[in-house]
Amino acid sequence: MSSTLNTLTRNDKVHFIGIGGVSMSGLAEILLTKNIKVSGSDMKDSSITEHLRELGVEISIGHSPSNISEDVSVIVYTAAIAKDNPELVSANNRNLPMFTRAEFLGEIMKDYKHNIAVSGTHGKTTTTSMVSHILLKGEKDPTILVGGSLDIINGYVRTGKSDYFLTEACEYKGSFLSFYPTIGIILNIDADHLDYYKDIDEIEEAFQKFAYLIPRDGYLIVNNEDERAVNVAKNSNCNTITFGIDNGDIIAKNVTFNSLGHGSFDMFYKGCEYFHVTLKVPGRHNVLNSLSAMAAAIASGIEPNHIKAGIESFGGTHRRFEFKGTVDDITVIDDYAHHPTEIKATLEACKNVSHNRLICVFQPHTYTRTYSLFKDFSECFGGITKLVLADIYAAREKDTGIVSSQRLGDAIRLNGVDCINLHSFEEITNFLKTYAKAGDMIITVGAGDINKVGEDFLKSR
């Protein structure tokens, strides 16, 4: 089956509704390298839309039928776009071919021979970034789509000229079921996106369907420490590689952590020692992420020296345990963690970084996630000195009153955590200015815009 890309010509134009998203903008850039015209719309300007303008993309702010010019031949839209969106309605009336972001990404993948898709509830961006470094060291010249800004590719997307394509594979609304992976990674399977899935069993079923997409001669790489991921592997139809610190096809032996929390270990694959490796990112969870990335590299036939060089060159992705700065001997870190499991892993990584007191500033992400995982959120902040709880970041949702940051704070306080609720970034910054002392570490946590607090704090001293 030929892909949509193969049928497009320079006379066609693809219009993106919601072009300001990381993945949508990346797809637009890929089309530009293929000399296909692109236009797009979004609700507000951003650094991403400005960058696309500089590349020659026609950008409209606000949604209107007039944004879809007569020469538009294909529509791509995000899952957040409502069915009554005026551009979507206009495209329907004109009978234009329409694709969700995930469907169109799948169409693009059809043009590549080697498709590496990184899935899992946690760790997708970091692991995709690790694989990116390895593929580049191995001179595979890949096309890359990653969910965080990665310095080595100067952003979120890289367009290569080879048959290698690397992308994150998100399970939300079954998006990754539109993909065509030849190598699939499952980092973990946890309860999340419960506004779409009814329970964890349905989530596991989605990952099983994802595994079935991999051809028989392809590879499924799974976390041997995750029971549900192992279940998926047992029922898969392709080659499998398991990873784990203590058990699996690829393992880490003699693991140690330095004062920055960076792990060092001996990497073994199927009983044979490959090399000793030292990471530049902290935490046990990143040791696991690195093992999965190295497994994908082995499945891709990359030489061990390039694997080692690639993984050791990775210094992190923006907003993933990102060092923001130090002022008055107070260290500020930012992390994207927005799920209880991720928060626990992030706080565990903090233990290996030298500091006196640990001050965590958390911004819950979406009412649905906060409500569905309420008990887990109330219990995941052990081991910190002070928790500052911001208001819930609504993202795509409306406040229905089912949950609040104040209610979550009350539950956290009942579990013995010293927690304070503050309602504005200005309040939080002012509190940190008076509370934080030399030797302390401040970590801002959440998938919204809480990173601004750390930046404001550093500027204010």
UniProtKB/TrEMBL annotation:
<dbReference type="InterPro" id="IPR005758">
    <property type="entry name" value="UDP-N-AcMur_Ala_ligase_MurC"/>
</dbReference>
<keyword id="KW-0963">Cytoplasm</keyword>
<comment type="similarity">
    <text>Belongs to the MurCDEF family.</text>
</comment>
<dbReference type="GO" id="GO:0009252">
    <property type="term" value="P:peptidoglycan biosynthetic process"/>
</dbReference>
<dbReference type="Pfam" id="PF02875">
    <property type="entry name" value="Mur_ligase_C"/>
</dbReference>
<keyword id="KW-0436">Ligase</keyword>
<dbReference type="InterPro" id="IPR000713">
    <property type="entry name" value="Mur_ligase_N"/>
</dbReference>
<dbReference type="InterPro" id="IPR036615">
    <property type="entry name" value="Mur_ligase_C_dom_sf"/>
</dbReference>
<dbReference type="GO" id="GO:0008763">
    <property type="term" value="F:UDP-N-acetylmuramate-L-alanine ligase activity"/>
</dbReference>
<keyword id="KW-0547">Nucleotide-binding</keyword>
<keyword id="KW-0131">Cell cycle</keyword>
<dbReference type="GO" id="GO:0005737">
    <property type="term" value="C:cytoplasm"/>
</dbReference>
<feature type="binding site">
    <location>
        <begin position="120"/>
        <end position="126"/>
    </location>
    <ligand>
        <name>ATP</name>
    </ligand>
</feature>
<keyword id="KW-0133">Cell shape</keyword>
<dbReference type="GO" id="GO:0008360">
    <property type="term" value="P:regulation of cell shape"/>
</dbReference>
<feature type="domain" description="Mur ligase N-terminal catalytic">
    <location>
        <begin position="13"/>
        <end position="112"/>
    </location>
</feature>
<keyword id="KW-0067">ATP-binding</keyword>
<dbReference type="InterPro" id="IPR036565">
    <property type="entry name" value="Mur-like_cat_sf"/>
</dbReference>
<protein>
    <recommendedName>
        <fullName>UDP-N-acetylmuramate--L-alanine ligase</fullName>
        <ecNumber>6.3.2.8</ecNumber>
    </recommendedName>
</protein>
<comment type="function">
    <text>Cell wall formation.</text>
</comment>
<keyword id="KW-0132">Cell division</keyword>
<dbReference type="GO" id="GO:0005524">
    <property type="term" value="F:ATP binding"/>
</dbReference>
<dbReference type="InterPro" id="IPR013221">
    <property type="entry name" value="Mur_ligase_cen"/>
</dbReference>
<dbReference type="InterPro" id="IPR050061">
    <property type="entry name" value="MurCDEF_pg_biosynth"/>
</dbReference>
<dbReference type="GO" id="GO:0051301">
    <property type="term" value="P:cell division"/>
</dbReference>
<feature type="domain" description="Mur ligase central">
    <location>
        <begin position="118"/>
        <end position="297"/>
    </location>
</feature>
<feature type="domain" description="Mur ligase C-terminal">
    <location>
        <begin position="319"/>
        <end position="448"/>
    </location>
</feature>
<dbReference type="Pfam" id="PF01225">
    <property type="entry name" value="Mur_ligase"/>
</dbReference>
<comment type="pathway">
    <text>Cell wall biogenesis; peptidoglycan biosynthesis.</text>
</comment>
<dbReference type="Pfam" id="PF08245">
    <property type="entry name" value="Mur_ligase_M"/>
</dbReference>
<dbReference type="InterPro" id="IPR004101">
    <property type="entry name" value="Mur_ligase_C"/>
</dbReference>
<keyword id="KW-0961">Cell wall biogenesis/degradation</keyword>
<dbReference type="GO" id="GO:0071555">
    <property type="term" value="P:cell wall organization"/>
</dbReference>
<keyword id="KW-0573">Peptidoglycan synthesis</keyword>
